Amino acid sequence: MGISVVFLIFFLCQLSFSSSIFLCPKHQSISLIKFKETFTTNPYASSKRYFRGQKPYPKTSSWNMSRDCCSLDGVICDDMTGHVIELDLGSSGLVGTIDSNSSLFQLSHLQRLDLSFNNFSNSHISPEFGKFSSLTHLDLSDSYFSGQIPSEISHLSKLHSLSLSGTGSLRLVAHDFKLLLQNLTQLRELDLDFINISSTIPLNFSSHLTTLRLSGRGLYGVIPESIFHLPNWKHLT
């Protein structure tokens, strides 16, 4: 009997511990639901995805407060802390805007963020994106952002992958382009297709770079030969 009681107590303790480490903090659940509620969903929000073989999947349609946010579609949490570290809402049919007060920016532990192939209604990219200090992957491509890409993106010094390719309405000034490449020294993939870049081609590319897409307007000058001698080089378009 004694052994059974000890085993039961041990089992309950383990169950309690296991449950607690996978529950995301309530304030992060609230932030995700608030973020969802700022959008409508439309499966045709970004028609370009069909040309890349991506089917729309409105992940946020099943989100609600009755579920642990770590089990929500497109959400991945840290196994130990429960913090939301990945948010994949690519091709989710989101229609709306992300302003600087968005609850998205309360998810301060994010390491990967994919908001590609949605429709953000030609709104500007908020400077608040530059506060995601742990981000290693950021994809805002083909989501109908417009205006100038904020210089704060260059604060994301841990980025391995950055995709800002657009629909022709985004621009990157020469100073911010150079700052981007100067600060993001860990970049492996950089996609700036269809961005209006009024600049010469800089020389200071990350030595980790494997893929570079720069089919933008206004980019001029000779491609430096040093790019082709980067140790991990694979693709240039």
UniProtKB/TrEMBL annotation:
<keyword id="KW-0472">Membrane</keyword>
<keyword id="KW-0677">Repeat</keyword>
<dbReference type="GO" id="GO:0050832">
    <property type="term" value="P:defense response to fungus"/>
</dbReference>
<dbReference type="InterPro" id="IPR032675">
    <property type="entry name" value="LRR_dom_sf"/>
</dbReference>
<dbReference type="InterPro" id="IPR046956">
    <property type="entry name" value="RLP23-like"/>
</dbReference>
<dbReference type="Pfam" id="PF00560">
    <property type="entry name" value="LRR_1"/>
</dbReference>
<keyword id="KW-1133">Transmembrane helix</keyword>
<feature type="domain" description="Leucine-rich repeat-containing N-terminal plant-type">
    <location>
        <begin position="32"/>
        <end position="78"/>
    </location>
</feature>
<dbReference type="InterPro" id="IPR001611">
    <property type="entry name" value="Leu-rich_rpt"/>
</dbReference>
<keyword id="KW-0433">Leucine-rich repeat</keyword>
<keyword id="KW-0812">Transmembrane</keyword>
<feature type="signal peptide">
    <location>
        <begin position="1"/>
        <end position="18"/>
    </location>
</feature>
<dbReference type="GO" id="GO:0016020">
    <property type="term" value="C:membrane"/>
</dbReference>
<protein>
    <recommendedName>
        <fullName>Leucine-rich repeat-containing N-terminal plant-type domain-containing protein</fullName>
    </recommendedName>
</protein>
<dbReference type="Pfam" id="PF08263">
    <property type="entry name" value="LRRNT_2"/>
</dbReference>
<keyword id="KW-0325">Glycoprotein</keyword>
<keyword id="KW-0732">Signal</keyword>
<dbReference type="InterPro" id="IPR013210">
    <property type="entry name" value="LRR_N_plant-typ"/>
</dbReference>
